[in-house]
Amino acid sequence: MFSRKNRRPKSADLLKAWECLDAGDIPGALRLVKQGAETLPLAETALVAGRAAGMAGFDDLREAAATLAADPGKGQALYDFGYACVERGLSALAIPALREALRGNPGALMVMRELVSAYEREGRHGEAVEVLTRYEDDFAQWPDRYLLVYNAIMSGDLPLARRQHALLPDPTDPRWVPTRDRQRRMLERAASAEPVSPLDVTDLRGWQFVMGGTILGTLSPFGFGAGMTGRYAWLQDSYGQCLEGLLRLRALLDAAEVRPRSVSLLPDRDSRILGLASAEVLGLPAEPFAPGREDTVVVAYDLNGAAEADGGPEIMGQLFDRAPGQVLHEHASNWTDVPVVTADSVTLLHQSVVAPWGPQLGAGGDGGVERGAADDRPAERIAAEIVGADPSPGEGDGETPADPLGPFTDFVAAVHGSWLRGDRARLTSTGPVPSARFA
After folding, report:
1. pLDDT computed for residue 6 by the predictor
2. Among 139, 138, 152, which Cα is nearest to 183's?
3. I need a labelling partner for 204 at 20 to 30 A (CA). Which of 23, 168, 334, 427 fits?
4. In this structure, how many other beta carbons lie within 10 angstroms of the beta carbon of residue 322?
5. How many whole angstroms separate alpha carbon 380 and alpha carbon 377?
6. What kind and span of H or E run contains 438?
């Protein structure tokens, strides 16, 4: 139990979060806390996080929060709270506590590793690099130097990554061998992409390839200069956009000199529709997916959706170890909730998407906007509509750089030697373990 004097926070933002909890809105409360995590008082943050954890049944976090709220200056309490937050997916709340714990105990490599893990999960790789560099004289080669190389890559500092990689010996523990190989492949892909791709902060296609071996087909024409750099937020997809993606896939296969003999259909409806259209565009026979089939293109509309279909989890597992010549293509890939398996080819990146045959928004009879009914026609008829659509890209807001076919195929021709050797784990994986914690 919290003491009576700490029953409620005093900060205005945290009081709003407290009121959300009064109403049973745990996600709303945590959103408010995350937004102010860097500046809000740790003891009061712990009050709200602890109450939310208690409501959610997370006893580890509830107890750690209670201890921190009672003694916010204690190093062990700071670490335990940060540890529990990382484990419960609240890395944004963990960072201030772990940073303070490290400040009070600068020789604690375990605290440093947990802080690095929290930074990674929040995509703050540059800050992870700063912390790791500060402890370079004391840290271990595995995992610490590996973590420095990984975060240097993810923050875009390839020169630092290469210097540190050259200092990293082969691991003596065989559990680290897959991690070492993954890191080498990332640097190999970077080397193959650099001659034809800037690999700067706006080079979405280049970095998608470096991170996981995925070749991105198209860029969003909206919000490029606002930080989206080719990603979509909410997308109402179209038949023309589906066809544009399939034409890019065909150009990709030609430029990479990959010669599939079939299209493999996944069982969910969205993927089956797109797979049937793919077979027409590629001029290949379509057949149900079978694990181990060689020289085939496995087509998914959205891998997260495919994973939720009957048999989806088993199929995702079978796609980790792909057969020779087996190419996984995903049309709409979620970049904020990345699929469990990484595709070799992706048409576009989105946060939320509605398929062209899904319940799309449109003008209502009263002049307002309303959601229509899903198109329940047979998959074959919808696939034919994709094949007959206009694939011309939309104009957008005029800020996205032109992305003609020629530079795209030049990119593919330059990197195809290291393509299809990508990493099957999700693109935003923070490394070989759930959190960077070692005894």
Report:
1. 46
2. 152
3. 168
4. 21
5. 8
6. none
Q: Strands, DSSP E only, in 301-377?
A: 326-334, 345-350, 352-354, 361-363, 369-371
**Amino acid identity for residue 402 in this structure:** A
- DSSP string for 20-78: HHHTT-HHHHHHHHHHTTTTS-HHHHHHHHHHHHHHHT-HHHHHHHHHHHH-TT-HHHH
pLDDT, tens only, 367-380:
677 888 899 999 99
CB 81 within 8 A of CB 62: no
For residue 347, give both structure tokens.
């048409």
User: Contact at 8 Å (CB) between 312 and 400?
Assistant: no
CB 273 within 8 A of CB 386: yes
- Token pair listed for 87: 């484990």
Angle made by CA atoms 358, 360, 364, in degrees to the nearest 5: 140
Name the strand (E) or helix (H) holding 287.
strand 286-288
pLDDT tens-digit series, residues 246-256: 999 999 999 99
Identity (one letter) of the amino acid at 75?
A: G
All residues at 6 or more sequence positions from 130 whose CB lies less than 8 Å from its CB, including other chains: none
Q: pLDDT tens-digit profile of 174-184?
A: 999 989 999 99
Chain-centre distance of CA 42, in angstroms?
29
How buried is residue 248: exposed, middle or buried, by Cβ count under 10 Å (0-12/13-18/19+)? buried
Contacts of 352 (CB under 8 A, 6+ apart): 233, 234, 235, 334
How far is 166 from 179, CA to CA, in rounded Å?
15
> Token digits for 235?
């997308």
CB 361 within 8 A of CB 370: yes
Residue 213, helix vs strand vs coil? coil
In whole angstroms, what separates CA 114 from the centre of its chain? 20
The string of pLDDT tens digits covering residues 281-298 is 999 999 999 999 999 999
Picking from 331, 340, 332, 333, the residue whose alpha carbon sits closest to that of residue 312 is 340
- The secondary structure element, H or E, covering residue 338 is none
Q: Rounded distance, CA 247 to CA 280, Å?
A: 11
Supply the pTM of this predicted model: 0.88
Instruction: Name the 3-class secondary structure at 380.
Output: helix
Cα→Cα distances 293→99, 324, 327, Å: 49, 8, 10
